[in-house]
Amino acid sequence: MTAFLLSVHVLAAILTIGPVAIAASMFPPALAAAAQDPEDTRKTAGVAILHRITRVYAVIGILVPVFGVATAASLGVLTDAWLITSMTLTAAAAVILIAIILPGQRRGLDSLSTAAATGAGRRLAAATGVFNLLWAIVVVLMVYRPGSTTGV
User: Fold this and answer.
1) Which pLDDT does position 115 carry in this prediction?
2) Cα(123)–Cα(130) distance, integer angstroms
3) Can you tell me the distance from the alpha carbon of 26 to that of 112, in angstroms, rounded to the nearest whole number?
4) pTM (2 decimals)?
């Protein structure tokens, strides 16, 4: 059962967090391009699609911590420091996504024809960078697992 839970956890992480990280990273430059030419429907549609990808995959991404906790419980590592750190960083990344990135993308879309879109893009780029850095640290912790008996 542990192998199944771990497999679903890893697949969910790859298939949900990856698209969120990429779409969120692509959004600020796409927003800036669309803000320069708000009449270009291809550019504005592209920004809207990136927002939708970020939003939809963020919702589906809840599978990652759900199966991660289930896997950790089956392995008996719920109280390990590396896992608690990973869960804390995951929660911080989720807060950044829910409280800053998604609303910022929405505001950027709503302000495409104004100068505010440029400022929104810069703030989103910074928040997305922090979001991606947190996930990179979590991945390293998941692979390295201090105290692991795998010898890695």
Assistant:
1) 63
2) 11
3) 16
4) 0.89
